[in-house]
Amino acid sequence: MARPLRIQYEGALYHVACCGNERKAIFRDDYDKNVFLKLLDDGLKTYNVILYCYVLMDNHFHLLLETPLANLGKFMRWFNITYTSHYYNRRHKRTGHLYQGRYKSILVEKKSYLHILSRYIHLNPVKTKQEEKLLLLEKVKYLKTYSWSSLLGYIKGSRRSGMIDYARILESYGGDNEKGRKLYWESISNDLSAGIDIKEKIVGGSILGSDTFIKWAKDKFLPLTSREIPAVQRLKKYTTKDKIIDVLCRETKKSFDEIKKERGVIRQIAMDLLYRVGGLSGTEIGKMMGVDYSTVSQGRKRLREKLKDDKRISQIIERVEANMSIIKICPLFL
Question: Which has the higher per-residue pLDDT, 197 or 292?
């Protein structure tokens, strides 16, 4: 299996997650969790890594980290080996892999997503099948009493931990003070009822940020990648979306706003190109065009039917792809 894309630079922010092999427990009791946090604290100090938040669940964990020294790989290698081989396997008299593959890391744009992603991570304890069935007030109570999360330090000054940097995130909520903690908890409470969408915004399974940030990461780091791993291919596809729109607008002499409002073949062509060439999901395209993802699917299906009888449509698509200098590696429609 190809390894996921890893981009490392000084000051990079990451959402790191690790799941138990076959989704089995990586913590059997509170003692395991306490040792995990002690080793995490040791690693943060040794590798000069900043921790903004964490959540420990029975079979996985989430960390939100910043690496001033561009050393995520070294830090995670030491941390995972120290916990799994040096501690967990010895204590529980076991052998073999504890985690399901390598850890997952998503590069995150600090300016746009640091404070939002912290809330997403802190909501993890109420996202399990069992806790999702709870009523809203029960979820509130559960989060406020969940011990294995950094959330309590964000909402109660008395529960702060020395290994967490609270100030950076609380800046967005009025500061590292009583007001900021109150506003942060209010945001968490709103998320409980309204939800918070992060997964659909992750590009190539490896980057979360604005289009500008994604383009910057692609231009700066992808040329240095030694091999075309799947995450790189997905990211390169995603960053063609602006080019697709630009070429299609020039070809049809319409603005993208005009194309989005149409209900005919040009909008269907845009949907298909963004899906097939741009690498976007139906949900992502739907959000761009102000429609439901099912409309995207139906639009592409109708376009396939029209292609059977209308060569003009094929010619438009071929001209757009030719102007983008795209080498086709798959059939026109899948």
Answer: 292
What is the rounded CA–CA span in Å between residue 48 and residue 161? 17
Domain ranges of the chain: 12-202, 240-323
Half-sphere exposure of 26 (CA within 13 A, CB side): 23
CA–CA separation, 264 vs 245, rounded Å? 16
Strand runs labelled E in the chain: 12-19, 50-56, 60-67, 104-108, 202-203, 207-208
Q: Compute the half-sphere exposure of residue 280: CA atoms within 13 Å on the CB side of its CA.
A: 26
CATH number, span 12-202: 3.30.70.1290
Domain 12-202 shares a fold with domain 240-323: no
Q: 247-290: per-residue pLDDT in tens? A: 889 888 889 888 888 878 889 888 888 887 777 778 888 888 88
Distance CA 246, CA 134 (A): 47
CA dihedral 140, 146, 151, 153 (to 10 degrees): 120
Read off the pLDDT of residues 283-294 as tens digits, 9 standing for 90 and up: 888 888 888 878
Instruction: Report the DSSP pairing between strands 207-208 and 104-108.
Output: parallel
Q: Fold for 240-323, please state it.
A: Chromosomal Replication Initiator Protein Dnaa; Chain: A; (1.10.1750)
How far is 80 from 39, CA to CA, in rounded Å? Answer: 10
> Residue 292's pLDDT is what?
86
d(CA 184, CA 122): 11
Structure tokens at 91: 């204590």
Model pLDDT for residues 20-36, shown as the tens digit of each residue? 988 899 999 999 999 99
